[in-house]
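[Discussion] Sanity-checking designs against the backbone

I'm trying to build intuition for which residues belong where. Below is a C-alpha cell string of 357 positions. I'd appreciate it if someone posts a full sequence so I can compare it with mine line by line.
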C-alpha cells in the first residue's frame, strides 16, 4: 500500500533543493561572494557607460558643446570681467601710440578708459558679440575635442598637448570697435592691434595654456566615449548573471549598490582632478581663466545632475540589501533556537515518560 505523507513532510519535500551540494556549504557561500563581486563590477560598468554617454552628448559632440556657449554668452559676471580686461589691454596699447601733443595720462587717461569701457560695453551688448563668442568657443572645441582620439571610431589625429583657446574673433572685434569710436571722437585713427599681444592670443588668435596637459585626457575621453553602449550593456549582462548565480540575492543588491556609488565617486574625482590641472597653469590668467573655469563649472554641474540619481540610488539599494541580509541572519538564528527548544522539550518529556514507566 502507498504510504501517506503528512502535510509537513510534503512541504519539506517541496522546499528541498534537488542539488544540495551546489547551494549549501562553502559552494553556496562562494556563489554568493562571486555574485556580489560580479554585481559590483556590473553596476560600476553601467554607471561608467552612463557617464561616457553624457560626455559624448555634452562635450564630444559639437551640438552639445554649443549649448554651453549659449549659456556663457549670457553670463553677466563674465561680461564684466571681459570689459575690465579689454579696457586694461586697450589702455596699454593706446599708451604705445604716437599721439603727438596729446598727453595720455592723468585725467585724459581716466576719461579715455571710461570711454573705452563704454565702447566695449556697446560691443558686448550687440549681436556681433554673440556671433564672435560662439565662433570662439566652437573653434576652441574643434581644436581640442574634435581632433582628439586615436581609434578608427573617433577618426581623430590626436588632441594638442596643451589646451588651446581661440580668442581671435572677440579680440579683433573689440579692437576694431574701439578704433572706430576713438576715430569719431578725436579724429585720429589708432592702430591698437590688440591681437599682437601675447596675453590675448598673439597674431593667430590662439592662446595656448601651457603645462595644462589636456591632450592625453581629451584623447582618452574621445576613445572611451564611443564605447559607452559597450560598457552599459556589459554591465547589464553582469547584473543578470549575478542575480541568477547568487544563493542569497540580497548580497547582489549590496554589490550593485556599492558598485554604483564607487563609479560615481571615481568619475567625480577624475573630473575634479582634470579641472584642477587645467586651472593650475600659470599661463591661464584674467578672462581666459574665467572662461575655462565657467566651462568646467557648467560641465561639472551637468555631470552631477546626471550621476546624482545613480549615487543615491546605489546607496538605497545597498542599504536595502544589508537590511535583507540582516533579516535573514536573525530569522535563521531565531528558527534554530526555536527548533532546539522544541526538540529539547520533547526529549525531556520522553525521558520523563521513561522514568515514570
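Best answer:
Here's mine. Compare freely.
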Amino acid at each position: 500500500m502507498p504510504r501517506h505523507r503528512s502535510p509537513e513532510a510534503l512541504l519539506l519535500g517541496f522546499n528541498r533543493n534537488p542539488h544540495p551540494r551546489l547551494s549549501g556549504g562553502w559552494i553556496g557561500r562562494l556563489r554568493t561572494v562571486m555574485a556580489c563581486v560580479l554585481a559590483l563590477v556590473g553596476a560600476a560598468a553601467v554607471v561608467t557607460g552612463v557617464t561616457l554617454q553624457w560626455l559624448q552628448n555634452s562635450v564630444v559632440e559639437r551640438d552639445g558643446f554649443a549649448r554651453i556657449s549659449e549659456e556663457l554668452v549670457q553670463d553677466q559676471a563674465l561680461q564684466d570681467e571681459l570689459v575690465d580686461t579689454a579696457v586694461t589691454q586697450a589702455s596699454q596699447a593706446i599708451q604705445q601710440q604716437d599721439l603727438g601733443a596729446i598727453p595720455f595720462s592723468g585725467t585724459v587717461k581716466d576719461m579715455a578708459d571710461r570711454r573705452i569701457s563704454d565702447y566695449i560695453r556697446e560691443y558686448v551688448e550687440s549681436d556681433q558679440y554673440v556671433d564672435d563668442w560662439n565662433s570662439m568657443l566652437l573653434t576652441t572645441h574643434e581644436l581640442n575635442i574634435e581632433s582628439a582620439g586615436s581609434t578608427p571610431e573617433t577618426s581623430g589625429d590626436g588632441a594638442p598637448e596643451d589646451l588651446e583657446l581661440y580668442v581671435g574673433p572677440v579680440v579683433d572685434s573689440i579692437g576694431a570697435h574701439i578704433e572706430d569710436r576713438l576715430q569719431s571722437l578725436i579724429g585720429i585713427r589708432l592702430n591698437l592691434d590688440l591681437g599682437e599681444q601675447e596675453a590675448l592670443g598673439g597674431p593667430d588668435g590662439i592662446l595656448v595654456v601651457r603645462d595644462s596637459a589636456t591632450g592625453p585626457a581629451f584623447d582618452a575621453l574621445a576613445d572611451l566615449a564611443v564605447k559607452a553602449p559597450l560598457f552599459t550593456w556589459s554591465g547589464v549582462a553582469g547584473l543578470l548573471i549575478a542575480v541568477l548565480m547568487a544563493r542569497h540575492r540580497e548580497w547582489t543588491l549590496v554589490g550593485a549598490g556599492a558598485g554604483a556609488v564607487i563609479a560615481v565617486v571615481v568619475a567625480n574625482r577624475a573630473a575634479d582632478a582634470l579641472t584642477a590641472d587645467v586651472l593650475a597653469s600659470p599661463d591661464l590668467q584674467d578672462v581666459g581663466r574665467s572662461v575655462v573655469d565657467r566651462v568646467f563649472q557648467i560641465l561639472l554641474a551637468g555631470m552631477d545632475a546626471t550621476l546624482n540619481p545613480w549615487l543615491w540610488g546605489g546607496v538605497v539599494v545597498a542599504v536595502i540589501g544589508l537590511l535583507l541580509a540582516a533579516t535573514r541572519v536573525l530569522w535563521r538564528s531565531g528558527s534554530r533556537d526555536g527548533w532546539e527548544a522544541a526538540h529539547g522539550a520533547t526529549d525531556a518529556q520522553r525521558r520523563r515518560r521513561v522514568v515514570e514507566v
